[in-house]
Design brief:
alpha+beta, 33% strand
């Protein structure tokens, strides 16, 4: 999964939505952000992607985590 504007977009004042397709990246970001509920995409019974909402101040760390899994 590459990092580009298709994967990260502004979602309100100071917040961003991040679209993640790698389970390992998602798990690490989920732990970092303290997420306890999932927002996911499912096809044929299989989860294949997640969206998370990220505060602007936490976005650089989330991008760094994503780069680990590119």
């Amino acid at each position: 999964m590459g990092i580009n504007k298709k994967n990260i977009w502004e979602f309100g004042d100071g917040y961003y939505k991040v679209h993640i397709t790698n389970i390992d990246a998602y798990e690490k970001i989920k732990d970092f952000l303290g997420i306890d509920q999932d927002s996911y995409y499912k096809k044929n019974g299989e989860i294949f992607a997640w969206d998370v909402t990220v505060e602007e101040k936490k976005l650089p760390k989330v991008k760094k985590i994503l780069k680990e899994f590119v």
